[in-house]
Amino acid sequence: MANSTSTSNSTFPILPEGTSLLPGIELCFGLTFIGVNLATFLMGILTLQVYTYYITFPDDEKWRKVVIGVIYVLDLAQSACTFDLVWWYLVRNWGNVAATLTIRKSYGLYLVFGTMVIGICQGLFLLRIYKLNTMLGKLRRYVVPPMAFLILVAFTFGMTAAGFSLRREKFAGGTVGKFAAATIALWLGSSVVVDISLATVLSLSLRSQRTGVRRALITRLIVYAINTCALTSIVALIDIISAYKFDRVRNLDILCTILLSKLFSNSLLASYNSRASLRSEFAQGGNISDLASSTISTSGMVVTSMPGKPADSDSTVRFENETIGPKSKISTKRDN
């Protein structure tokens, strides 16, 4: 019995409360564990948003519904990878110092899935800007291609960082570690530039339409655009700063990276699902009479007027494939 007790105590030592068997584990994986929990919470919100989208907008284009499904599956796969990371480092290899220095394949895979989600979301936001022909007009050809190039650059850097993680077996320091950190920083930095550019162009384009559509509605759309950019950009900037300014063992940068794709996908779904409230705004007397021969596409909503006809007589509000006919469903009365 004594031997049994001795063996048990040597295998599972009794430590004072608050003392870890592996000193520094809370600094090394504490924030990663918190990030996985927060990402799980965001995944639950995304699940609800995706369900709401498919129920509320069954008439959307098939390609859009497929893309939303792909984004959800990719986010789900990324969540599975982060669960594997927590299980591997904190459960399967708990107390194993050597294991904390190895790079689990799921680490590289979660970067792959996250990069794909961010790239797809940014592409859909760019498509929204491409449909604008009010303020941009012919300038669209000079605005959209550079932004598409930036999205491609960000995607390339993200995949490069993911590929680097998949090829390496251990976390590296020195020149190799700096190269990996620089690649991730370039990915996130390019993503920030894309976000700010998308929000700026979209906001300026919407601002030019305030004379036609009720100001409160356009102001709300501008706020949506800015909020979409602000949250993701702030998290990405914190990610970059923490990777260089603070001790990397704290893993604040990994926490931000885990959350980033979930923030993008939730922002995208929130903008699509906001069409229900925007439809209500128009139904309550939104003025679209001054939008002759123009189209605005934002948050999945399109406002059109028939070319060559008075806007008051044949104005139409269309939400993707769903059209609310002239005068019978909305008011086109001019605001005084």
From TrEMBL:
Biased composition (Basic and acidic residues): 311-321
Domain DUF6534: residue ranges: 191-277
Keyword Transmembrane helix: yes
Signal sequence range: none
InterPro entries cross-referenced by the UniProt entry: DUF6534
Annotated transmembrane regions: 29-54, 66-90, 110-130, 142-164, 184-206, 218-246
Region (Disordered): 306-336
Keywords: Membrane, Transmembrane, Transmembrane helix
Record's protein name: DUF6534 domain-containing protein
